[in-house]
Amino acid sequence: MSDLPALPVTFRPKRTRAVMLTAGAAMFVVLTVIALMLPKLSPGERTSFILTGALLFGVLVLLSRPKVVAEESGVTVVNIATSRRLAWAEIVQVTLRPGDPWVFLNLSDGTSLPALGIQPGIARQQAIADSQALRALVDARTPLGD
Question: Most CB within 10 Å of its CB: which of 7, 68, 100, 110?
Answer without folding.
Answer: 68
